[in-house]
Structures are given as structure tokens and as C-alpha cells.
Amino acid sequence: MRTPRGTGPLRHAPFRWLVTARTVSIVGNAVAPIALAFAVLDLTGSPVDLGLVVAARSVANVAVLLFGGVLADRLPRDVLLVVTSLAAAATQATIAVLVLTGSATVPLLVLLSVLNGAVAAVSLPTTAAMVPETVPATELRPANAVIRLALNGGTIVGASAGAAVVAVVGAGWGLAIDAAGFALAALLFTRIRLPRRVRDVDAEPTSVLADLRDGWAEFTRRRWVWTVVAQFTVLNAAFVGATTVLGPVVADGSFGRAAWGLVVSAQTVGLALGAVVALRWRPRRALGIGVATMAVTALPAAALGLVPTLPVLLVAFLLGGTALELFSIAWDHALQTNVPRELLSRVYSYDMVGSFIAVPLGEALVGPLAGVVGTPATLVGCAVVIVLATAVAASTRSVRRVEVTTA
Q1: Which of 1, 229, 276, 311 stands the most exposed, by the fewest C-beta atoms within 10 Å?
Q2: Number of structural domains, the chain?
Q3: Residues 99, 172: contact at Cβ < 8 Å?
Q4: Using one digit for the tens of pLDDT, what is the confidence trace for 62-89?
């Protein structure tokens, strides 16, 4: 899609600062999963310990997400992003110092991962609901695609550079880069200038519980919303367990750590490709198509289990990333155009809780399961689970019938 000079979402200053800040943070944050995974493996060599560390972050993230959604609907979202970015910088800097000084232990990494996950639980629904505040409604679809392209580009750079940093100078420096990225993002978020939301002065103050009930009512009244979230409850547990925990284990035993960074980058190239396709191809029922294409995300897990060679993995992760991005842009657009603005962060938080709640289980179980039945069998099993969850959601009429505007 071609955008005339001076038009499009980037002509809005708040959106430009939002894109810039998020891109900077993602460059650093793309390094973190690679660095943390190999830091734990260097420390104990145990995939079970790695699963516990990453699961601890996910548990805290899920536990705090609903509260984060309430905060994001009550408080200025731009201010929240500054605070959460600074807090994330502090937690990652502490982990980096522990790793670099040889003081890291699994319990300490678990504790800091819990803190980092709690901070992310506030920032995630905040950033998701920020886009409609920075551009007009008619520019939401291109704005979502632009921000996803920027984030994907940052992830490509971060993952590739991060793998090289980890391989050459160690995991601790990779985590230090992540901390610096969050600190710079906090500075950039201060540049966003948004009009403050005005509350009805005659309205009675509401409790957190009442806000959560309102968000739940909005979340459950559309069947297509909770059906897709249920799909991702299962899909994410299988996919994240396979790629985040067992992926580095397979890499360590075969093609190497630096090459694993290339594999992760291939997925991000696929995400960027999916965003470009979404800009040009705008079917009315994009959500149903996106849901169905999530079956393609089974390919990375299957390839790790059956053909763990670099060329095959690069193609599998690229295709999986493309499918994921086609879904993600359609999903964001559907939510942002159907959910009232004042409830959007809470609906996003319920979406994220449902999507992430089983991720810690997947992360914690794949290690022991691989020890019992073998890593290849566990990875193939994860691929089968992804396909089955997708088939159920894609066959649901309410999902297939959702239409999104193409303006």
C-alpha cells in the first residue's frame, strides 16, 4: 500500500513517539529470551530449571494482567508506560549484574522474573489500547500494520545481534542491552502528548471489582472473542513450551547457539512479511482466515522434533511468523473497532490472561515430559495440539462470520 507524503498514521506525533519507543524497547527485549535461556543453561545445564525460570515470569504476568487492565483504563496510559519501562529496566539490569558477576542462582532468577512479569502485565494492555488514542479510527488498520512492522524490524535486529552478543561475550551483556532499551524507551514515552480522559464528575467512584465485572461482561458478550482466546490458551502453551524451552535445548545439542538466533530472526522476518501482506490484502472476514492460518504455527515445533536442521527451521519459523502476524493484525483491528474505548484495556487484559494462563504449564511440563518420552516426541505432540486447537476455533461459526471494516 502506498501512502501519500504527509498522510497516514505516521503524520500524528503521538503515534510516531509510540512507534519509536516501542521499537527501541523491543530491540533490547528481543535479546532477553535468548540471553536468559543460555544464562540458565550455563548455570545448571537443566531444561527443567530453564522451564521454571521462564514459567515464573509467565505466572506473575497472568496473575497481574487483570489489575493491569484496570489501571490502564483508569490512569493516563502514557504515564503508565514511562513507569513500567523504568521498572522493567531495573529488573533486567539486576539480572544482568547477577549473571555478569557470577552471583546468579535459580531462585534469584525466578524472583526477578516474577517482578519482570508483573511489570509487563501492566504495560501489555496499556500499549495494546494506546493505538486508538494516537490515530483516528479510519487509520487504525494501517497504524496497527505500521507498528507491527516496526516491532518486527526491531526484533530481527535484536534477536540477531543478541545471539551474536551471547555467543561472543556472554548472556549477561545481552541482558544489559535489554535493560538499556527499556530505559531509553521510558525517555521516549515521555514525549507522547495525549489529551487526558475526562471522567463524568457526577458518576459514582467504582471499585476495582466493579471495573473487572464490566470488563468481563464486555469480554463474554461476543462469542467470537472468547472462542479465539480459548484457542490461544491451548496453542500458546504448546508453542511457547516447544520453542522457548525445548528450542534452545535442541540448538545446544545440534546446530549451535548463534544459529538459534537466526532461527528466531526468521520467525520475525515472517511476522514482517505478514504485516506487509495485511496492508495489501484486506478480506472482510480477515479474522476467520487469520484464525485458520494459525495451524501453520505447528510447523516450527514439528521441524524441531523431526528435522532440526538450519534450512528447514528457517523456513518453518518464517511461515509460522507470517501466519501469526496475519492473525494478530486482524485480531487487533476487530477488537479496536468493536469494543468501547473506555473498556478496551480491560478486554485486552482478559484476552491476555486467557491466552497466557496455560503458558507456564507448557513451559514447566515440556522439560520433564521430554525426559520421559524424548524431546522429538514431545515437540511433535506440541505440533498436534496446535493443529487441533486451531481446527476447533476455525470451525466455529461466530469466528468465521466476524467482519472488519477495510477503510
Answers
A1: 311
A2: 1
A3: yes
A4: 788 888 888 888 788 888 889 999 998 9
CB 68 within 8 A of CB 119: no
Query: d(Cα 393, Cα 398) in Å, to the nearest integer?
Result: 9
Does residue 51 lie within any of the structural domains? yes
C-alpha cell at 173: 551483556
pLDDT tens figures, 7-45: 578 888 888 899 898 888 887 777 777 788 888 888 887
How far apart, in Å, are the Cα atoms of 250 and each of 22, 49, 163, 306, 361?
31, 16, 15, 11, 20
Of the ranges 89-103, 203-217, 241-255, which one carries the lowest mean pLDDT score? 203-217
Of the candidates 242, 197, 227, 226, the one whose C-alpha atom is nearest the C-alpha of residue 77 is 197
* CATH code at position 212: 1.20.1250.20
Calpha distance 314→138 (Å, rounded): 36
199 in a structural domain: no
Tell me the three cell numbers of residue 371. Answer: 525426559
CA distance 195 to 222: 30
pLDDT over threshold 70, residue 201: no
Question: Distance of alpha carbon 65 from its chain centroid, rounded?
Answer: 13
Residue 5 lies in a domain: no
- Residue the block writes with cell 544489559: 176
Q: Kindly report the CA angle at 388 between 384 and 392, in degrees rounded to 5?
A: 170
Would you state the pLDDT for residue 377? 92
Please tell me the distance from the alpha carbon of residue 175 to that of residue 43, in angstroms, as a whole number: 15
Q: Which pLDDT score is estimated for 385?
A: 94
Q: Would you state the cell numbers that stand for residue 165, as one nine-digit string?
A: 552478543
At 187 the pLDDT is 92
Cβ density class 290-315: b for 16+ within 10 Å, e for less: bbbbbbbbbbbbbbbbeebebebbbe
Q: Is residue 264 part of a domain?
A: yes
